[in-house]
Design a protein that fits this description.
heterodimer; A: alpha+beta; Multidrug efflux transporter AcrB transmembrane fold; Gyrase A, domain 2; 3 domains; four-stranded antiparallel β-sheet; 13 strands; elongated; B: Multidrug efflux transporter AcrB transmembrane fold; Alpha-Beta Plaits; 10 helices; 4 strands; transport (chain B); membrane (chain B)
Chain lengths: ~450, ~300
């Protein structure tokens, strides 16, 4: 049974690596092995009410996902990570783009979309202070005026988050005036429409500032309350500009502003080198380990090596089935776990030897040895499992990869040690203590 | 058992090494990597032969970039560590270096860690260490809850933590020295290694304690001291063998593994070695000392 099962598993592990096979499931490699780009954005949620942060972050993730999908990256990973409380709280968006090494292009796709805001008149003191500070240091007049313009408006809460869709229209010119040129018509979601109605009702006769990426594009004067949930942006657009703007708005205006915090790029050849080196290290480690076990523990050592082989096959199958993303640290964790997996076997063999010394027959010694070693195996492995769980919780993606592999490894190794090793040892069916069998079951320098 | 008899000597060795490690940490300081401090790492490939670190530093002298460290890697790669730079600055830096060396350089790896990530990592790492240590004390106290005579179960936990501190301080000290001499950094992986060592080293310690528990139950010897000695005798082969197997695979990882996990493997190897030593020569003997000390007082 066992032999058949593990043969079937290894067949699966092998064939699923071939792309032609129906159940093709190649190993999933992390960015550090396959090459790619890892970006971390910091989201500025200071304007978002505390209760809505999670929702805004989810919306942000969706928008970025949409943009990246258009970019055509295979299997991008986009995660929201929120942590900490109070002042230390941070909301991050993690973007992983396998195979993309042109960061600039990726950055452009992600961030080159407008942040649309509707603001009402009123002095934003913080912004004013900022612009004053900026005007002292800035040598460009243009930017100074732009910033101070922004400081004359206050946030109204209406942003691109409430956008349903945008389109280009060419409004018929009012009698006696020149055509206004292309205009962008913005349609709000029901919530947005309500908000817009309130804003227009409260600000009749004043201007509403329409900002794109913090720049004022249009400041129409409100004539009356608008309940239709539509707004027209009449900047001095060319047709192309208006079209681009509409496309970008439809792709999704960002619900919260983001700022790039960290980038990481791994070239494909470096990743391949690291992967090769990791595999080579694993193989060499395994061979040396196998030699040691067979030389020291003889027959049980051979059994342990067989059980280790089953362990390796099970682990590889699990990596494919879950699937676990393999990183350099993950491979290190796997190699380490092979060393740990031996542990349970050694515990059992040492017990076995003791039981034999007490004069038990070999099958009895095997049974006793297992029973007595089990407590130690359980308790000692639990501590490893605890650390792996904490690591998984604390870790960045790099460390999570390591912790997950280690965690799975410890659990699987307990299983293989008590089932596979035990079954194989009992199956050997050595009944009598002859000189040969005693030699085979002893270890080290004892006779 | 000679380990118990000469326990003071082994305590002295441990105290000396821990003292040296602490001194190294205080004197050299820890060379924290960009994971913690923020900053950039750029790995470049020089396909037609790489210049020396000094030459690269010199060619940077005229630019606004100052590489705090230039390190050769692999056959033709160079790793630069500098302050946090953005994409545009990176392109400028690469083109400057390409011009000076008159060859086309390939960017192998670039990472720029901002303050959000680095600050948070440090906070979380500290928290994780504390949590693991607390969990281990609780766990050991729980597992050995039926053992109260003559040493109560929470003392097993505390002794385990003492040995854990020992196991962590020594590799950290070694890395302080390596950081000073070769620029080896304390990064997120180093912390991962330490947390892993916590789990593995306590594993060895638990196996020894487990033997003590069993032998106490079976009343194999009249004195606690002898029970511990006997337990050690029964388990040290196993401790050394299992640690050897782990160290073997770690050494393979260190020697043959990829560049990114080299220091990680080294930290784990040192930690494992020290951890094995401490679970034999420190943990169980400490229990005996504590028992003697409290029975003298009582």
């Amino acid at each position: 049974m066992l032999v058949l099962g593990s043969l079937a598993l290894s067949y699966f592990v092998y064939t699923s690596e071939q792309t032609e096979a129906a159940w093709s499931r190649p190993f999933r490699l992390g960015l550090d092995l396959s090459g790619g780009t890892h970006l971390v954005y910091r989201a500025d949620v200071t304007e978002v009410p505390a209760g809505d942060i999670a929702e805004s972050m989810a919306a942000l993730k969706e928008v970025i996902e949409r943009r990246i999908n258009i970019f055509g990256v295979s299997e991008p990973i986009i995660q929201v990570e929120s942590s900490g409380l109070g002042d230390g709280a941070s909301n991050k968006l993690i973007v992983e783009l396998p195979g993309v090494t042109d960061v600039e292009e990726a950055l452009a796709v992600i961030s080159k979309t407008p942040l649309l805001e509707f603001k009402v008149e009123g002095v934003d003191e913080a912004a004013l202070a900022r612009s004053l500070a900026a005007s002292v240091s800035a040598d460009s007049n243009a930017s100074t005026t732009m910033i101070s313009l922004a400081s004359m408006y206050q946030d109204s809460g209406l942003t691109g988050k409430y956008l349903k869709r945008a389109q280009v229209i060419f409004p018929p010119p009012a009698a006696g005036t020149a055509p206004t040129g292309p205009t962008v018509l913005v349609e709000f979601t029901p919530d947005g429409a309500e908000l817009f109605a309130t804003i227009t009702r409260d600000n009749i006769g004043k201007t509403v500032g329409i900002f794109l990426d913090g720049e004022l594009v249009s400041a129409p004067v409100v004539q009356e309350e608008i309940t239709a949930g539509e707004a027209q942006i009449t900047g001095n657009f060319t047709v192309d500009e208006a079209k681009t703007l509409v496309r970008d708005l439809n792709l999704g205006a960002l619900p919260v502003p983001i700022e790039l915090d960290s980038t990481q790029t791994i070239g494909p050849s470096l990743g391949a080198d690291v992967l090769d080196a990791g595999l080579r290290a694993g193989l060499i480690g395994f061979i040396v380990l196998a030699l040691f076990m067979i030389l020291w523990y003889r027959l049980p050592g051979l059994v342990a090596v067989l059980s280790l082989t089953v362990y390796v096959v099970i682990m590889l199958a699990i990596f494919k089935l879950i699937p676990v993303t393999l990183t350099a640290a993950g491979i290190a964790g796997f190699i380490l776990s092979i060393g740990i997996a031996v542990d349970a076997n050694v515990l059992i063999f040492e017990r076995l030897k003791e039981e034999m010394k007490r004069g038990r027959s070999i099958p009895e010694a095997v049974k006793e040895g297992f029973a007595r070693a089990w407590l130690s195996i359980r308790d000692s492995n639990l501590s490893g499992i605890l650390s792996a769980i904490v690591l998984f919780w604390f870790g960045t993606s790099l460390i999570k990869g390591f912790a997950l592999v280690l965690l799975i490894g410890i659990i699987v190794s307990m299983f293989t040690a008590i089932t596979v090793t035990r079954t194989l040892l009992l199956a050997l069916g050595v009944k009598h203590k002859g000189r040969v069998s005693t030699f085979l079951f002893s270890n080290g320098f004892t006779k | 058992m000679f380990v118990i008899k000469h326990r003071r000597k082994f305590f002295a060795i441990s105290a000396l090494v821990v003292g040296l490690a602490v001194a190294a940490i205080l004197y050299f300081g820890l060379n924290f990597g960009t994971d913690f401090t923020g900053g950039s790492i750029l790995e470049l490939r020089y396909p037609e032969g790489r210049p020396t670190a000094g030459e690269i530093k010199n060619s940077l002298a005229t630019t606004p970039f100052a590489a705090s460290q230039v390190q050769p890697a692999g056959d033709s790669n160079v790793i630069l560590r500098l302050q946090a730079i953005d994409e545009a600055e990176k392109e400028e830096l690469i083109s400057t270096l390409a011009e000076v060396s008159a060859q086309t350089l390939t960017e192998e790896r670039f990472s720029s860690i901002g303050p959000t990530i680095s600050g948070e990592l440090a906070r979380r790492a500290g928290l994780a260490l504390v949590i693991v240590v607390i969990l281990i004390v609780l766990f050991i106290a729980f597992v050995f809850r039926h053992v109260s005579e003559p040493v109560s179960s929470w003392k097993y936990g505390l002794v385990a933590v003492l040995t854990l501190l020992h196991d962590i301080i020594i590799p950290t000290g070694v890395f302080a020295v390596l950081g000073y001499l070769y620029g080896v950094e304390i990064d997120a992986l180093f912390l991962t290694a330490m947390l892993t060592i916590l789990g593995l080293s306590v594993n060895d310690t638990i196996v020894v304690f487990d033997r003590i528990r069993e032998n106490l139950k079976n009343k194999v010897a009249p004195h606690f001291e002898d029970v511990v000695g006997l337990s050690l005798q029964q388990t040290y082969a196993r401790s050394i063998n299992t640690s050897l197997t782990i160290i073997v695979v770690l050494l393979a990882l260190y020697i043959f593994g990829g560049t990114t996990t080299k220091d990680f493997a080294l930290a784990l190897t040192i930690g494992m070695t020290v951890g094995t030593y401490s679970s034999i020569f420190l943990a169980a003997p400490l229990l005996v000392t504590w028992d003697k000390w409290s029975s003298r007082r009582g």
